[in-house]
Specification:
Length: 365
């Protein structure tokens, strides 16, 4: 009989875990501490303050399993003991998804009435005063960069470069702005259209989408239905030239192909830093002179076809070359583009046939 009791108790103890519900001697509901002793729920004094501390010196509850701040206590037996934390939105005091003069007035009133809530402490210095008001005013006058969204719902961060606002990520849209689908090509032998818009995914590998975006032919770039987010467009040759000249005052915006360089240094300023070999970047070594000084983060996202016109693969030179279309046509077969490479800091202004699949960056209208 004693053996059966011991087996029962041993089995029971294995089935119980820290934080499980238990019953105290006075029939009050409690919880199991790390020594599997039953403690009153009233001791869960710190639940909800972000520490996951159960209020007892013995140990802490296992985050995030017992993370009240994340809402894990909802529907459990100790939900009422959790003061769920709501993150403050900087400056949006009335939580109406807008930061405006109403939020300023709320802070002013709470200071005058000495009845301010935690979210009014914008700079989190435990004091709510005129500095917090000035911070909200600055947010209104200089709104943060929230990015731009394409018709598919993809969000792109942007950067200000001189007078231009550029997307800092490659385009990955699959529809024109009227909702029509752009023709997707998943067979390299079908990629060679000069007249109809197409796009493809490098090596049909979906893991490349978020980082590298898609490769588009020039007909997709030039389609009147538009592929850039509303308020943005595919940059002209002149607009690319303006970007390069902003970075390099000695740039030659009229340079052509491999005979001359548009810039000897701007490529390094545009390229993302790090290398594939070292695990801290997306260019192959040596990624010469890459500084990403303006946060443009150009990556070696490849091209289709290769330099000899081969179409055996859906993409070539990933990690080695970055090509970007402009919207400027040269003639029926050619349009201007820009090239960056892993082995130098130059920018090449290339004329390419319109069947090439290149990356696209958009610039604000």
């Amino acid at each position: 009989m004693k053996l059966k009791i011991l087996v029962f108790l041993f089995t029971f103890s294995l089935a119980q875990e820290v934080g499980d519900e238990c019953t105290l001697h006075n029939s009050e509901i409690g919880f199991l501490e790390c020594n599997l002793a039953c403690y009153p729920i009233s001791l869960l004094e710190n639940i909800g303050n972000g520490s996951c501390d159960d209020g007892i010196d013995c140990c802490e509850l296992n985050c995030p399993e017992f993370d009240c701040d994340g809402g894990d206590c909802i529907g459990t037996y100790y939900e009422s003991d959790c003061e769920l934390f709501e993150e403050c939105s900087d400056g949006d005091i009335n939580d109406d998804n807008e930061i405006n003069v109403q939020d300023i007035l709320l802070i002013v009133n709470c200071i005058l009435e000495n009845n301010c809530e935690e979210c009014s402490d914008i700079n989190e210095d435990n004091t709510i005063n005129v500095i917090d008001i000035l911070i909200v005013i600055d947010i209104i006058l200089n709104p943060p960069n929230l990015g731009v969204i394409d018709i598919d719902g993809n969000l792109y961060q942007t950067i200000q470069v001189g007078e231009q606002l550029w997307m800092k990520e490659n385009l990955k849209v699959t529809h024109y702005n009227n909702g029509d689908e752009i023709l997707f090509i998943d067979n390299s032998q079908l990629w060679n259209d000069y007249d109809n818009g197409q796009y493809t995914l490098y090596n049909n590998d979906e893991s490349n989408i978020d980082l590298h975006g898609f490769l588009y032919n020039w007909s997709a770039v030039n389609d009147e239905r538009g592929i850039c987010p509303s308020g943005f467009h595919v940059p002209t040759d002149n607009e690319w030239g303006e970007l390069v000249s902003f970075l390099d005052t000695d740039a030659n915006p009229n340079a052509e192909n491999h005979d001359e360089f548009e810039s000897m240094i701007a490529g390094g300023l545009l390229k993302g830093i790090g290398t594939i070999e070292s695990g801290d970047g997306y260019w192959y070594e040596p990624n010469t002179g890459a500084t990403n000084s303006i946060d443009f983060t150009a990556l070696g996202s490849g091209v289709i076809p290769d330099e000899n016109g081969n179409l055996e693969s859906l993409g070539y030179y990933i990690g080695y070359l970055a090509f970007f279309w402009t919207s400027t046509e040269i003639n029926d077969n050619l349009a201007w583009s820009r090239e960056l490479a892993f082995i130098n800091t130059t920018v090449h202004r290339h004329s390419l046939t319109k069947n090439y699949g290149l990356s696209v960056r958009c610039v604000q209208d």
